[in-house]
Amino acid sequence: MKILTLILFLFVTGPASAEIYKWTDEEGQVHYDENPGEGSSGSVIVPRQNKAPATPAPSAKQRLENIRKWTDARQKERETEKRRKAEQDAKRVKQEEKCHRKRNRLTDLERGGRRYRLDENGQRRFLSDQEIDSRKNDARAYLEKHCR
């Protein structure tokens, strides 16, 4: 019985203690082998890595669950991207409207149109030449910076 146990022990531990040698031949070629090469220079012993036990393949149920999780995650990504794009589009439309209003105001000021503003009582207060020039310059600066 002791002999049988010893033989089993050697079979189980034998492969785990095997070694692989890394050596370079005379031509400078690197080799990996279970035995060191003859006439090799600078042999280095590299312990053999035991292979991890193979993981069992996922069951059909697990694969289906993985597919569902991936599909749900992808759908959330699509919805997030769709919301982000809608927000960008809304922001772009709002900016285009503002640019359109600024262009119209500048055109109106340059053509001599509405040169007044209404005060808090609803009375017209005519703009001075400096105020008109200032508004024109402000509109031009805004258009140059924010509009195409």
Topology:
Elements: H1 2-13, E1 19-24, E2 30-33, E3 41-47, H2 60-110, E4 116-118, E5 124-126, H3 129-146
Antiparallel strand pairs: 1-2, 1-3, 4-5
Task: Please explain how this structure is put together.
It is elongated and about 115 Å long. It has 2 domains: about 20-50, no CATH class; about 60-145. With about 150 residues, the chain is α+β, with helices and mostly antiparallel strands. The strands form 2 sheets. It has a 3-stranded antiparallel sheet, with no helix packed on it. Strands 4-5 form a two-stranded antiparallel sheet. The protein has 3 helices and 5 strands. InterPro entries: DUF4124. Pfam families: DUF4124. Keywords: Signal.
What's this, in brief?
Keywords: Signal. This protein has about 150 residues and is α+β, with helices and mostly antiparallel strands.
The secondary structure category is alpha+beta
Secondary-structure element order, N to C: HEEEHEEH
Tally of individual helices:
3
- Strand residue percentage: 15-25%
Silhouette:
elongated
The main β sheet shows up as:
3 strands, antiparallel
Q: How many individual domains?
A: 2
| Total beta strand runs | 5
Pfam families: DUF4124
Biased composition (Basic and acidic residues): 62-123
Keywords: Signal
Region (Disordered): 31-123, 129-148
